[in-house]
C-alpha cells in the first residue's frame, strides 16, 4: 500500500494544478452560481412605485408589508415622479395610499383607499394588484373585528374600555404570534420542522452535489489511462493483482475527494449561514462513496477518454435532474424516482440507501470475478 501511495503522490505532484482545480470546482462553482443566481433574482424583482399620502399607523403598516414582499422592489416617491417613471417603463405599476386611509378602513369604506396606475407595459400589474388588495383586506378584516368587539362590549356591558386602535393592534399581534395565515408541515419521522424563508429557487446542497458529481466522474478518467496496454504491461510486474491496484488507487481518490467534500461543505455552510450536523456529514460521505464507485465501474466500460467524457455529461445531468438537484422531484407520488439517482438520498440526508448498498455489491462482484492471469 505504501508503494501505491508514493506512486500516486508522484502522479499528483506532476498534475497538482489540474487536480486542485477539479477538487475546488464544486465549492467555487457553487459559490459563483448561487451568488450570480441570487443577484439575477434580485434584479428580476418587480419594480413598483409607492406613494404614501396618509401618515397614520395603519398606512405605515401597509407600506411595510408591501416593502417586505420578497417579489417586489417598492420605491417610495412623489406621485409626479412615480408617474414619469411609469411612462418611461422604469416602474411596472404605481400604488398610491390615499390620504385618510385609516379613517376609511375604520368606517368600512374600502373604495379608493389605494389607487393604482399601470401602463400598457405593466406585465405584472394584476398579481401585484391582488397582493396589495389582500393586504388592504387584512386591514379591513381587523377593523371589522374591532367594531364587533366594541359592539359586544357595549351590548353586554363589559367593563373594558378598549379603543379601536388597541383592538386592531392586538389582533395583528395575535395573527403574527399564532401564525393564523401561515402553515408549516413536516414529513413522517422528520425530527425537526425546518422553515426556510428564502425564495431562492436553488438549493446550495443540490448545486454543490451536481458539480461534485461532475468532478468525481471526470477525475476517474485515470482508470481508463492506466488500463492502456502499454501501461498495463508495466503494472503486470506488481506483486498484487491489477484489480487490487485499481481498487487501492480508487480508495486514495475517494479519501482525497472526501477531505475536500468536508472542507467545501464547511465553507459553504459558513458563507451561506447554514448549519451542518453529523448526520449530514455521514450522508455526504455515503454520497461520495456511492458516486465514486459508480464512476469507477462506469470508467471500466470505456477504452478511450473521449467517449468517456462525452458520455459523462448527459449521465450526470440525468442523475441531477432525477435527484432533484436542478428541479424538485415529487418522491411522495413517485417513490421509485428516489432510487434512480444518488443525489436524492443525499439531499434528504439518508446515509444508507439503495445506491450505497448497490454500489458496494457491484464493486464486490467485480472484484471477485475471475480475471486473466498476468506474468
Summarize the structure.
With 375 residues, the protein is mainly α. The chain contains 15 helices and four strands.
Structure commentary:
With 375 residues, the chain is mainly alpha-helical. The chain folds into two domains: 2-38 and 203-368; 45-175, D-Maltodextrin-Binding Protein, domain 2 (3-Layer(aba) Sandwich), CATH 3.40.190. It has 15 helices and four strands. It has helices at residues 2-14, 16-43, 57-68, 79-87, 101-106, 125-155, 164-178, 204-219, 222-225, 229-235, 242-271, 278-299, 305-322, 343-348, 354-368, and strands at residues 46-52, 72-76, 93-97, 114-118. It has a four-stranded mixed beta sheet, sandwiched between helices. Helix 3 (57-68) links the parallel strand 1 (46-52) and strand 2. Helix 2 (16-43) runs parallel beside helix 11 (242-271) and helix 11 (242-271) runs antiparallel to helix 12. The longest helix is centred in the middle third of the chain and has 31 residues, at 125-155. The protein is elongated and about 100 Å long. The model is unreliable at 187-199 (pLDDT under 50).
- Report the span from N to C terminus: 20 Å
User: Order of strands side by side in the largest beta sheet?
Assistant: 2-1-3-4
Overall pLDDT confidence: 82
Beta-strand percentage?
5-15%
Range of helix content: 55-70%
Low-confidence parts: 187-199
**Tally of individual domains:** 2
Instruction: Return Rg in Å.
Output: 31 Å
| Series of H and E elements | HHEHEHEHEHHHHHHHHHH
Broad structural category? mainly alpha
Number of DSSP helical runs: 15
What would you call the shape? elongated
Compute the number of strand runs. Answer: 4
Give a quick account of the main beta sheet: strands, pairing sense, barrel closure: 4 strands, mixed
